[in-house]
Structures are given as C-alpha cells and as structure tokens.
Amino acid sequence: MSFLVGAILCLIFVFVPIRAQYTVPEVTIQGLNPKGIRVFLPDSSDNFPLTSFLFDGLLYKENAKTIAKENLVGRIWGFGAKQALGGWLFEDPFVELKLNQVIHYHVFVSTGFGDVGRPNSDGISNFTLPGYCVMNRVYVVNSLVDPNARGPQCGETATKVRGREVCAGETIFEDNFDTFRDDKWQIAHYIPIDHPEHPFVSYQRLQVNPTVTVENGTLRISPKLQQDLFQKQNKSILSGTLDLTSGCTELRTCAMSSIGVDIVPPIVSGRVTSARFAFTYGTIHVRAKLPQGDWLYPEILLEPLSKKYGSLNYASGVLKVAMVRGNTDVNTERYSNNWLVGGPIINSRCRSALEFYHKKIEGDSLWGDDFHIYSLKWSPEEIVLSVDGEEWGRYTPGATGLRSWLPASCRGDWFELLNNGGIMAPFDDHFYITLGVAVGGIVEFADGLTTGEQIPKPWRNRGRKAGFSFWQDKENWYPTWTQPDLLVDYVKVVAL
Asked: Per the database record, which ranges form the WW domain (predicted)?
C-alpha cells in the first residue's frame, strides 16, 4: 500500500509502510498565538533510528462535528528537522489556528533512505521511502501559547543556568579545547592565601613558558618552580617578593614577601574557571589524565558562585568531580595514585565525614597512567559519581540533608546558615567549573606519610613552617614529577 503525499519538483514522494514490530512515538502538538504550530516527535528506540519525519494534517473549522469537505479549512504538511536535544520538530509559522479547531493528521517516519524510480511518460519519478505510518489521528486545538514559550521539544528540567532557560538533556556547556577560549575560561592570577586547603602554590598567567596551554586538542596545566622564575630576576624564594598586582584576578591576594620561614609559595601552577558560566544541577563529564608526582593533586571542581553560606573552609561547599593524590608509592594506600575520591565537601577540616566512598583502580595501574572520563551527576535529590560510565559513589541526603552527616566537631557558626536552604544545602546554588593543579597544603595529605623510599612527608599540616619545610625537601619530591601536568581532553555539562 502506498501513501501518496505530494509532488516536489520532478519527484512524487511515495511512502511505503513496513510491517515490523515497531510503534511510532506519539507526537506533541502545540498551537501558537497569533500564528504557528509546532509538532514534536520524540526519539525512537535505538534499534530503529529515524532518518525522517513527516506530518500531514487537514485543518477543519471550530467545533466541526464531522471530518467533511465542507468543514475543511486548509492543510498542514511538511518534514520535521532533527533536534540537537533529541527528537524531530516540524514547525509552520504561518498557519493560523483557532481554539476548538480540529486537525485530522497522519504521521510517517522513515528508518532508512529512499530510492528514485525510473521516470514515467511525463518525466516524473517516484521517490519511494520505506517507513511506518500512524493514520487518522485527531487533535483539537485547546490552547494557544506564546511562540517564545518552552516548546514541546524542550522538556522540563531541574537544571538552572545563570541568565537563560535550558531544556532537559541539553548540553549547556562544552569545550573540546581545539583552542583556548577566553570567552569560556578565565586563567587565575593570584596567591591563594585564603584557600581552605592552603596549597603551596600561586596561580599565575605567565606569558613565557605558561602554566596553562592548549595543544593538540588538549588543555594542559603545568606546575613549575617559583625559584626558576625568580632566578631570572636575581631574586630568591627565601627573601623575594611575589607581586601579581598586574592582572590579579583576586584583588585581596595579589602580593606577598618572604619573611623568615614564611616564604612565598614555592610552586607556580595554573587554574582556570568557567567565569561566565555557572549552573545549578546537571551532569558534568571531564575526560582527563591526572598528574603524577609526590604531593601533587588535581583540582577538578564545582565551586559556589555567590558563597551565600560563607567562604571560610568551604562553608558554601565544593563538589570534587575527581581527586587522586599524585604519589605513586606511599605507605598509606588512600593517599596514592590508585585511589580515587570525590564528592561533596562542606567543611575542609572535616572532609572525612563525607569521604567514605572511594574507588581503587584494578591491577597495578594508576589513575594517572591514562585518560578517564570522570563524571558527577548533581540533582536536587542526590550526587552520583562515575568513572568511565561506572558508578562508584552516591550521596543521598535524605530528609535531614547533607549537613546532618557532619559530626558536631565539624560544625561552627556557619552551620546554622545551612538551615536556610533545602536538603541539598549548601549545594543548591549556582556553581562554576574549576580545573587546576595544586601541591601539598594542610588538608589533602595526612601527617605521618612516607613515600616508597621511606622518605617522610616533609611538613606538618599544623606547622608554621609547612611551605618552607616542603621547599627544603625539593631534592626528594621534585625528581618524582615525571608527569606533573593535568591534561583535559574535554569538559561537557548536560542538563538533567
């Protein structure tokens, strides 16, 4: 049986239904005010990928009791376009609909590609397209919506993006690092003296031998020695001044001088943030190769934009998409490069209250040996961590919220502010993306660690000389920095 639709140029389209176990998805029809119609067809099963979608409707008068010729007003006909979010959308901006009008329609979908037959005596060829039909459906125009309203192809989502509306399943941020995009990323240039982990780094945007580069489709963030930069200026890390005032991205932390054991950060590193993009709820995927080397660790984070619950010690929270400490051989396994951790951090001093999920890589491999896809799904109900598509951690706050997981010893004056939020507080605000490399600090590496060479960790986390003691041990840790860079292949954020 053939379903004759119409002629275009020198072809007559002939649609040939196929007999198979397949159900054409139901379409969603939306009438627009003052003119227009949208018809959305959801995606089909993966076993039947669609190649085209045709809507063919006859428009009848308001309150028409019968599908009769005398009630016919016009025809609505055309092919739909494939949508980036999935499904197919047919639009006609010119048809004028009225309430209670009736549309009698057919839907045809194709799962293949057609053939052009030989021309007939009039020089016209049949174009035969195999597919599936839904015949004799009826839609009554019961409402007319603003053309700027959410379309039927744009599903409701809990995801929010600063400054715009988004749809379920929409890719709301993506960078494959074909080049460095200043419109997407800001390179940090400051001294993080108020960073709750107090890493032994300054973040600098260097013009020569930069810490942040893009090459061969990969973002590279490279830590360097501050002393190497100082030597070019005949300065010493033990007595010099680090002045990042020009171009400083954090005005309160732009310069410092070494005085006694309080030395400037011994490591220069890179950090980028999605300065113009922030979101609430969604799934972030980061394909990355993590740094290896003693006392290194990556920063693959979601950080709060407004810090409405406070800024001290992660009071407004931070979401670690993935974190692996760089030591390849250490006496306590959880601090080595085969131990993946991540998830929500509410208070940097008490992170062990939430860090009870981990994933150890199989065999003798290390996480930093190769690229992996690190994912974090953040919803109003839970936080789910995955690596290479495999779930390894799930945080579900329940009725009392994530804050209830913190023991009393972790709570301070800031804690009461969390009661102003919902069960996901403080993770119910806009967060932005951060990528970087940090070193040492007073949180990530416990006291008492030793490397495989039985060399003790050179600083105490509560010691006044932490950064100085770390620098004095350079001859032991620096030779292990054979792969100190964070490499990022892509970042992608998808709405729920």
From this structure: 453-486
Same domain, 202 and 292: yes
Expressed in angstroms, the distance from the first to the final Cα of the chain is 42
Residues spanned by the domain of 72:
3-149
Residues 138 and 23 in one domain: yes
Give every CB contact of residue 6 below 8 A, 6+ residues apart in sequence: 12, 13, 77
Residues 317 and 438 in one domain: yes
Q: How far is Cα 265 from Cα 237, in angstroms, rounded to an integer?
A: 8
* Domain boundary residue, one of 149, 183, 213: 149
Largest CA distance in the chain: 99
AA identity, residue 141: V
133 and 3 Cβ atoms separated by less than 8 Å: yes
Task: Return the structure tokens found at 211.
Answer: 């810490």
Write down the number of H helices and E strands in the chain: 3, 34
DSSP 403: G
Domain stop point among 118, 149, 180? 149
HSE-CB at 358 with a 13 A cutoff on CA atoms is: 19
Report the share of the chain in percent with pLDDT over 70: 90
Pairing of strands 255-257, 115-116: unpaired
Is residue 321 a contact partner of residue 303, using CB atoms and an 8 Å limit? no
Count of domains forming the chain: 2
- The DSSP code for 164 is B
Render pLDDT for 128-184 as a digit per residue (tens, 0 to 9).
677 888 888 999 999 999 988 888 888 899 999 988 889 999 999 999 999 999 999
Which of the listed ranges 14-18, 21-25, 128-132, 461-465 does the model predict with the highest average pLDDT? 461-465
> Do residues 368 and 337 make contact, with C-beta atoms less than 8 angstroms apart?
yes
130 and 189 housed in the same domain: no
Contact 127, 14 (CB under 8 A): yes
Question: What digits encode the pLDDT tens for the residues 57-79?
Answer: 999 999 887 778 889 999 999 99
349 phi/psi in degrees, rounded to 5 = -75, -20
Judgement on whether residues 144 and 210 belong to the same structural domain of the protein: no
User: What are the residues whose beta carbons fall under 8 Å from the beta carbon of 248, sequence distance 6 or more?
Assistant: 189, 190, 254
Q: How far apart are CA 249 and CA 275, in angstroms?
A: 11
- 186 within 8 A of 180, measured Cβ to Cβ: no
Residue 438's DSSP bridge partners are: 297
The DSSP code sequence of 432-493 is EEEEEEEE--SSSS-TT-BBTT-PBPSS-TT-TTHHHHHHHTHHHHGGG-SB--EEEEEEEE
Element containing residue 340 per DSSP (H, E): strand 339-345
Cα(72)–Cα(341) distance, integer angstroms: 65
Residues 46 and 188 grouped into a single domain: no
Please indicate, yes or no, whether residues 256 and 374 belong to a single structural domain of this protein: yes
422 Cα distance to chain centroid: 23
Backbone angles phi, psi at 277, to 5 degrees: -130, 125
Can you give the length of the chain in residues? 496
| 3-class secondary-structure state, position 308 | coil
- Alpha-carbon distance 212 to 191, whole Å? 16
